[in-house]
Q: What sequence folds into this?
């Protein structure tokens, strides 16, 4: 799938969908099944820089993604975060505005022969993401296809 | 300061300001100087439930708070998160929609004879909040007054 602006944010994951202002990526770390990144499709370093159409587009994505993930998987609740820490590891900083969406699961989830466990459920903020087991490309595609099937707002081309 | 809806969210901190739809609180944990909570002034458990006026009001608060905090303190950047984990520790869950705003500092900050250190700067997501040193009520008031002095959007009564 070809997505506008993808080259600038390809480290955040594989392309899942796009709206007019945002790109939705399936995160490399799938310990929490369905973990996504929502990245702005223009250069911007802070939330203060978003304009009203970008906020309202984002709000529709929140609704659509939460609904699709709840339909696809037995999600208990969601964490949303705009952290930007990794961009400030560099000097000078090189931040690009993006959101993390982490579905949280009270119980382990079986999907495509993997068991996904949310070891920090209810206990902590978003977990340490430095070390995570990989899944095959085939399973990654299955996760993307399953989420995509349930999207509504984001399935309308360039909403 | 009296704030609408405060009784329901008083565990999140002390009242700093309010807009039409949101209440801004100074968080109990001030390890990161100026840490705030932005709580919705009605019962709601997930981001999907916000309507357009509430999103746009929130976007103005993001701009106003980030600007006020940058003017008041030498903030390097900000973490924003809507996690809601603590509400799911309970069974049945008892979540109330709120955002964490954590200013992040590259260097230690001296304020009112305290030195505030951001030990996780650039390294991690929002830190473990279970154990933090307390500051006096007087210093808490000084932090609140300093932030309040620089608010614009939120200083207009019931914007």
A:
């Amino acid at each position: 799938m070809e997505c506008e602006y993808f080259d600038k944010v390809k480290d955040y994951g594989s392309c899942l969908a796009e709206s007019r202002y945002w790109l939705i990526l399936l995160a490399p770390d799938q310990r929490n099944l369905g973990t996504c990144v929502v990245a702005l499709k223009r250069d911007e370093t802070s939330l203060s820089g978003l304009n009203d159409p970008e906020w309202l587009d984002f709000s529709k994505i929140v609704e659509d993604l939460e609904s699709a993930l709840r339909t696809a998987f037995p999600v208990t609740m969601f964490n949303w975060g705009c952290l930007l820490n990794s961009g400030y590891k560099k000097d000078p900083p090189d931040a690009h505005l993006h959101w993390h969406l982490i579905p949280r699961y009270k119980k382990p989830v079986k999907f495509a022969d993997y068991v996904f466990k949310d070891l920090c459920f209810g206990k902590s903020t978003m977990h340490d993401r430095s070390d995570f087991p990989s899944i095959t490309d085939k399973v990654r595609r299955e996760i993307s296809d399953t989420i995509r099937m349930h999207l509504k707002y984001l399935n309308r081309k360039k909403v």
User: Anything to note?
Assistant: The helical segments of chain A are 6-9, 52-72, 137-149.
